[in-house]
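#struct-help
A.M.: can someone run this one for me? Single chain, 214 residues.
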Amino acid sequence: MTKLVIARHGNTFNQGQTLTRVGARTDMPLVEKGRKQATALGLCLKERGLIPDVIYSSSLMRTKETAKFASAAMGIKEHAYALDIFNEIDYGEDENQSEDKVISRIGKQAIDDWDKHAIVPNGWDANPKEIIQNWIDFSKQISKTHDEITNNVMDISEVILVVTSNGIARFAPHITGDFDKFTNEHSIKLSTGAFGVLELSQGNWRVVDWNIKP
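D.P.: on it. Structure tokens below:
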């Protein structure tokens, strides 16, 4: 059985700093709390028996560092393969702006629609169809790999970890084919350092857990 673990990177701001919308054009490292969140992520995955066979991240430092610290906590030396498809979205003119300024420009309803239904606000550079298709193509590829493995080995379980960002992770449940059901049952956001688990069974993906905070 294939399990896809989708994790959000750890914190990139220290307590007391003004939080801003950090997107694809801003490559920030983890702060100390973020490194601790990444370590806690690894320990939690290990405790749950979700040690990954393969790890992917985005090309951004915050996700690669999260994968690195999580791997160390699990006691593994898996290399994280960086894929641009997992890079955060581009927040356009709201990139690096405080939430107050963002809401002032686009309105609170636009933020609510983004957080509840993944509707991209006006002015943000993100193509939902492309992001969804990337997730679907990725899920098909790992499904194919799993099928090839299980043809030779009985009852094998494979775990794939993807470390990405909030704006990208929320589209992953589209691979289940029923995103509306997912949004009715879960908040689509992942907290920093949190993760979700999707499981492939009989050719279909389903969300097992979401927004688990180690």
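A.M.: thanks! Helices lie at 32-47, 61-74, 99-106, 108-117, 128-150, 166-169, 179-185.
D.P.: also worth noting: The domain at 2-90+126-212 is CATH 3.40.50.1240 (Rossmann fold).
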